[in-house]
Amino acid sequence: MTLHKILKYIALVIGVIGLILLGRIMAEDGDAIEASADLQNSLLDPFMWVAYLVLAIVIVLVAIFVLKGLFRGNIKNTLISIGAFLAVIIIAYVITDGTEMTLKDGSMLSANGAHWISAGLVTFYILAGIAILAMILSGIKKLIK
């Protein structure tokens, strides 16, 4: 049996379990779920565990295929891509700053934590801009051809 068939059956089983759990949640009254901690635990916890299971499976499979691809493919291109990603993170960290602030719950966020959050947001904006620019250039290239 190939890996594709095995994963297809696993996805089907997890999907059916998720649908059953979602049906249980939708069958209950929303106000009753909010009011009862026991009902929240009995309905939402299994749904969360399915989500954790799916996340774990995805992380393991991604790690396997990334390592498999590293040894099969051109490691030079991989290292260049990782270096470019790290450069974007460093640029975002350098151009942002952080100040200590009070959160809504009254706890304090350190200046370093705020700095990393700002850097993460700027990194996202830079990478999103690059992705949008790549899609636009690809579309223009297709139109020219």
Quick summary of this structure?
The chain has 145 residues and is mainly α.
Give an overview in words:
By secondary structure, this protein is mainly α. It has 2 domains: 73 residues; 72 residues, no CATH class. Helix content is 84%, strand content 3%. It contains 5 helices and 2 strands, in the order ααααββα. Strands 1-2 form a two-stranded antiparallel sheet. Helix 1 packs antiparallel against helix 3 and helix 4 packs across helix 5. The longest helix is centred in the middle third of the chain and has 36 residues. The protein starts with a helix and ends with a helix.
> Helical proportion?
over 70%
Strand content: under 5%
Q: From the helix content, strand content and strand pairing, which structural class follows?
A: mainly alpha
Total number of strands: 2
Number of alpha- plus pi-helical segments: 5
Separation, N- and C-terminal Cα atoms: 43 Å
- Tally of discrete structural domains: 2
Low-confidence stretches: none
Summary tags:
2 domains; 145 residues; two-stranded antiparallel sheet; single chain; 84% helix; 2 strands; mainly alpha
SSE topology sketch:
Elements: H1 3-27, H2 30-35, H3 37-72, H4 75-95, E1 101-102, E2 108-109, H5 111-144
Antiparallel strand pairs: 1-2
Helix pairs in contact: 1-3, 4-5
